[in-house]
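Hello forum,

I keep getting stuck at the same step: I have a sequence, I want structure tokens, and every attempt I make locally crashes halfway through. Rather than fight my setup again tonight, could one of you with a working pipeline run this one for me? It's a single chain of 132 residues.
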Amino acid sequence: MIYEMTVQVRVTNKEEGQKWYETLLNKKPDFIPHEGFAEWELIPGCWLQVAEGVPTKGSGPIRLGVTNIEAERDRLIKELKIDCFEIYSRKEVPVKWGTFTDPWGNRLGLFEYLSEDEREERIKTVLNSFGK
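Reply #2:
Ran it on my machine without issues. Output:
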């Protein structure tokens, strides 16, 4: 039985990487188990680890769900100085999405549900798993 997951990205400078991901995620790490390592619980049981090391080429993207992809893209361009990225959609896909990279070459992305009802249902599911 799988009940949790972690995803790891590597950065060449842990201090700069932690600060960059704090801005991306709008919060401080939830857990710093040792030097060169920080973890955020994104949703219950889903952890993002930022570790000091050599980034893996060609991995990802790790996509994060947001309620307004355009506003979040604008925030990241302003606050993190990422390059503007295109937002895509297809008739058969229930989300729109876009991909960008962090300063170390890790591929990341955002997605937003096209249906407000579906988005609200997903948010309720996540909040219920937190007991809220």
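The helical segments are 14-25, 69-80, 116-129. If your local run keeps crashing, start a new thread with the error log.
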